[in-house]
Amino acid sequence: MLQQGKAMIDLDSIYQSIRAQGGRITKVRRAILQVFASESCLLSQADLLARLEQSGLSPNRSTLFRELGFLVDRQILVRNSILGQDYYELPKDHHHHLVCLGCGTIRQVIMPNQLQVCEAGIKKDNDFEIVHHALEFYGYCAACQNESIDR
């Protein structure tokens, strides 16, 4: 069991879930899940490939693409599209992202309960069952703000 942020990641439970859905735990799949369990940030396919290569595994891009699709389809991973780029992460407490337009850093941010109240109002006012939402804030991190001041 690995700790990610505040959440504990139980890889054995994830493996059991994959098997229960008729999947196998391949060497590549296991390595992918171990990378995500040890990271607390979003990873692009290129980021993941670099991490796998650091661990001595070099799957080709098409294999990695298929594996990510397999894990997303089974809700083992979550796909986030930010600025036209797909990023992946293990599902955890609902959160949103701060995206720096300067350096490209992406940080997680937990929103206060007011957003839940707003979502309930949207649901009620529109007779609409919300099953998912994504919210990203785009701007400039402190380092990029300081860099623009220094110019």
Largest sheet: 3 strands, antiparallel
Strand content is 15-25%
Can you tell me the residue ranges where pLDDT is under 50 for at least 5 consecutive residues? 1-7
Give the C-level CATH assignment of the largest domain.
Mainly Alpha
Query: How many helix segments?
Result: 6
Strand numbers in spatial order across the main sheet: 3-5-4
- CATH fold-level name of the largest domain: Arc Repressor Mutant, subunit A
Counting DSSP E segments of at least 2 residues, the number of strands comes to 8
Helix content: 40-55%
Distance between the termini: 47 Å
Q: By helix and strand content, what is the structural category? A: alpha+beta
| Count of all domains | 2
Q: Mean pLDDT score, rounded?
A: 87
Q: Which architecture name of the largest domain does CATH use?
A: Orthogonal Bundle
CATH superfamily of the largest domain: Winged helix-like DNA-binding domain superfamily/Winged helix DNA-binding domain
Order of helices and strands: EEHHEHHEEEEHEH
Which word captures the global form? flat
Write down the Rg. 18 Å
